[in-house]
Amino acid sequence: MKAEKRREEILSFIGNAENPIPASVLAERFAVSRQVIVQDIAIIRANGYDVTATNRGYVLNSKIQATRVFKCRHSFEEIVDEGALIIEAGGKVEDVFVNHRVYGRISSRLDLINRTHVEELYRSLVSGASKPLMSVTDGYHYHTVSAEDEATLDGIERALRERGFLIEI
């Protein structure tokens, strides 16, 4: 695994953990030394993430300060484009949900923070084992997106609109 991908995975792993994650656990999970993990955490911090080292392990203090819900519509094939657009503009795709006329709100947590996560989601949907939620509402769906600030969310909104993915509410 390349260092950059490993750092993305470390960030995701500690960001989604409910408890601090010790360096030894990260080292074992990613098959590297504890010292490599310490160096990776230093680089992650240098990239602007607030990671705290406690006596029980690493904790990500989220730099996310703003969230917004976007109503979108696109084809199945454009799932990766939509996710990559949001992430590359500085957002995190927290979830996806639809409002079904019979069943009400149906949602799923996504926590997509990098393109690899989006591509893995797409591959799992392409396999045919499951269909995306948007398939039950003719492509219409919502995403809760978080970002560092409102300006970033404004940029994401503009980009979604320009691509034709955004449905004005």
Quick gist of this model?
By secondary structure, the chain is α+β, with helices and mostly antiparallel strands. The protein has 6 helices and 6 strands; from the N terminus they run αααβββαββαβα. The protein has helices spanning 3-16, 23-30, 34-46, 79-88, 115-126, 150-163; strands at residues 50-54, 57-61, 66-73, 91-100, 104-112, 140-147.
> Largest sheet, described in full?
4 strands, antiparallel
Alpha plus pi helix count? 6
Q: Helix content range of the residues, please?
A: 40-55%
- Lateral arrangement of strands in the main beta sheet: 3-6-4-5
Total strands: the figure is 6
Return the average pLDDT rounded to an integer.
Answer: 90
State the end-to-end CA separation: 42 Å
Morphology call: elongated
Instruction: Give the class from helix and strand content and strand pairing.
Output: alpha+beta
Radius of gyration: 17 Å
Question: What is the subunit arrangement here?
Answer: single chain
Low-confidence stretches: none
Describe this structure in words.
- With 169 residues, the chain is α+β, with helices and mostly antiparallel strands.
- It contains 6 helices and 6 strands; from the N terminus they run αααβββαββαβα.
- It has helices spanning 3-16, 23-30, 34-46, 79-88, 115-126, 150-163, and strands at residues 50-54, 57-61, 66-73, 91-100, 104-112, 140-147.
- The strands form 2 sheets. A 4-stranded antiparallel sheet has the order 3-6-4-5. Strands 1-2 form a two-stranded antiparallel ribbon.
- A hairpin with a 2-residue loop joins strand 1 (50-54) and strand 2.
- It is elongated, with a radius of gyration of 17 Å.
- The termini are far apart.
- The mean pLDDT is 90.
